[in-house]
Amino acid sequence: MPGQFPFTRGIQPDMHRGKLWTMRQYAGFSTAEESNHRYHYLLSPGVNGLSVAFDLPTQIGYDSDHPLAEGEVGKVGVAIDSIEDMQRRFKGIQLQNIITSMTINATAYI
User: What b/e string do you get for 88-97 counting C-beta neighbours within 10 Å, with b at 16 or more?
Assistant: First the structure.
């Protein structure tokens, strides 16, 4: 039966006839606050998912003030150094109403 193990016809009984697939927007840049502003902009017209882009130092586990992070902080994604950065990044966003994912490359092997 659809929506039941072994899920040969999908995980939802009516699959995408009843619930459309999620369209995630890949975004994140500079600071948590700047990324938050961008996320609000993207969600306002109806984006229902966010795939977060992290900067390279964050991806490889360096804080923004680490000497090896110099020149790379916030360049191609958002710099996240603490849980407070995560909270600022999603401030005012109803996470229960959207899908989020954390897109990483460098730390995937960990």
Answer: bbbeeeeeee
* Count of other CB atoms within 10 angstroms of residue 48: 15
Nearest to 74, CA basis, from 65, 83, 15 = 65
pLDDT, tens only, 60-77: 889 999 999 999 998 889
Q: What is the pTM of this model?
A: 0.76
N- to C-terminal Cα distance for the chain? 37
Complete edge-to-edge strand list for the sheet that includes strand 24-27: 24-27, 49-53, 99-103
pLDDT 10s digits, 1-36: 666 787 777 667 777 677 677 778 888 889 999 999
For residue 59 the two structure tokens come to 């991806």
- Gap between the Cα atoms of 20 and 68, Å rounded: 43
Closest alpha carbon to 20 in 50, 52, 47:
47
The one-letter amino acid at 109: Y
